[in-house]
Specification:
globular; about 425 residues; mainly alpha; Growth Hormone, Chain: A; single chain; 18 helices
Length: about 425
């Protein structure tokens, strides 16, 4: 069958090893994730939404609130949502509901931008971003369970990595359009981009409901105290080490804005100057996501080590180059730096997602995901201090510090277990 052949080609699996329904599920995962990840790039608060609010005349405080609201809103609610996910017989509906919520919020953002202006538009968009972030939280806390229930080990990284590469092609196209000068900083074109992203979320939500996920009887302890929810952090040393390593390696996600600050071209504000940076980031994702995913299927531990080590080298070189020469050589140098940093980030993202998916038992995977994400959300909020450090000591100092922290994360990752090598009962059963 064509789905089996396509799935086998993408994952490297022999056809006789593919469980009934797994190939179809894999393709649903790929298309759904590609749609939502593409939508994410079209609704990027760091770029598209920031420019959208600028175009409608929103105050700077509203623009500055976009990223913290999105990131904190996507991560902090997950611990509270985990219990509901664990109590559900199927996880796919949580993911679909979260994706649908993001789609509706994105369409509402586009509508607010077209009908409101100034501070009113700013408040409306920030509130809608909070709604979007909550939907993202529901999808995130449920996805690893849905993936583990429907795709066997050693194939999950290939599925998510290929989807990320497909989505990055869309982001590259958006960057190319920006670089071409076709898009001005105008409400109409930017609102249209956001609306297309909203439609992508809704299509993904509808498609994911077609996933063949076996309904399971769930016996969940009614004790939903904070102590119960955070208990794995005290009892599982591997989880503590994973969270610490992930927290340190999160600097690969925080670094790009500071890299842009190091470039002389970062002072230019036209969309056609931002286009090459978007293209560089997207191209890195296209080239690296699938490769990192396949490597993670073999060893997510080694993927985290290698990606963290690469990130450390890149950030130390970028920071050192800037100290010596004063900048990164304009737009081209900045794009090259972002390209290499993004390759490292894609490896960290692929490795940490798959490691958590494969290390956690079925009954507690949602809780592990939520606990990890909540702690990282708090760390990212606290990471706002790096912005003040950049004002005081310069962005080069921050990038150099990131390089040291990434090296520490790579070292911590070396202490993780090889979870892909263990035979697990969490592989999906045939349907």
């Amino acid at each position: 069958m064509l789905p089996d052949r396509a799935f086998g080609f993408l994952t490297g699996a022999d056809r006789e090893d593919i469980e009934r329904g797994e190939a179809r599920n894999g393709l649903i995962h790929i298309v759904s994730l590609a749609l939502t990840k593409s939508a994410d790039s079209l609704i990027d608060p760091k770029l598209v939404l920031s420019w959208l609010l600028s175009a409608v005349g929103a105050p700077g405080a509203m623009i500055g609130a976009l990223v913290p609201v999105r990131e904190a809103g996507a991560l902090l609610p997950q611990l509270a949502l985990a219990r509901r996910v664990e109590a559900s017989a199927q996880r796919k509906f949580f993911w679909s509901a979260g994706s649908a919520m993001q789609g509706v919020a994105a369409l509402a953002i586009a509508g607010a931008a077209l009908t409101l202006d100034g501070a009113t538009a700013g408040v409306a968009v920030v509130l809608l971003v909070a709604v979007l972030a909550f939907g993202r939280s529901a999808s995130s806390v449920s996805y690893k369970d849905a993936l583990a229930r429907t795709i066997a080990k050693r194939r999950r990284g290939a599925v998510t990595g290929f989807a990320a590469s497909m989505a990055s092609i869309a982001a590259f196209g958006v960057g190319a359009l920006m670089a071409s000068g076709i898009f001005a900083v105008a409400v109409g074109p930017l609102a249209g981009i956001v609306a297309i992203g909203g439609i992508g979320f809704l299509l993904a939500a509808l498609l994911f409901t077609r996933l063949e996920e076996a309904a399971e009887d769930v016996d969940v302890d009614d004790d939903a105290s904070i102590r119960t929810l955070v208990e794995p952090l005290f009892s599982d040393s591997q989880l503590r080490l994973f969270v610490a390593a992930r927290g340190a390696l999160a600097v690969t996600a925080l670094a790009p804005p500071f890299i842009v600050m190091l470039s002389a071209a970062s002072e230019r504000t036209a969309l056609d100057q931002l286009g090459p940076l978007v293209m560089a980031s997207a191209l890195a994702s296209v080239l690296a996501s699938y490769v990192w995913g396949r490597l993670s299927d073999r060893s997510s531990r080694q993927t985290l080590m290698v990606a963290g080590g690469l990130g450390s080298i890149v950030l130390l070189c970028v920071g050192g180059f800037s100290v010596v020469f004063g900048d990164l050589g304009g737009a081209l140098g900045s794009a090259a730096a972002i390209f290499t940093a993004q390759i490292s980030y894609e490896g960290v993202r692929a490795g940490r997602k798959l490691h958590l998916t494969d290390m956690a038992e079925d009954d507690f995977r949602a809780r592990y995901t939520a606990l990890s994400n909540t702690l990282i959300g708090l760390a990212l909020v606290a990471g706002g201090v790096f912005g003040f450090a950049a004002d005081q000591f310069g962005p080069a100092s921050v990038v150099l510090a990131f390089g040291i922290i990434a090296a520490m994360g790579a070292v911590m990752a070396s202490g993780l277990e090889e979870v892909q090598q263990a035979n697990s009962d969490s592989d999906p059963e045939p349907y």
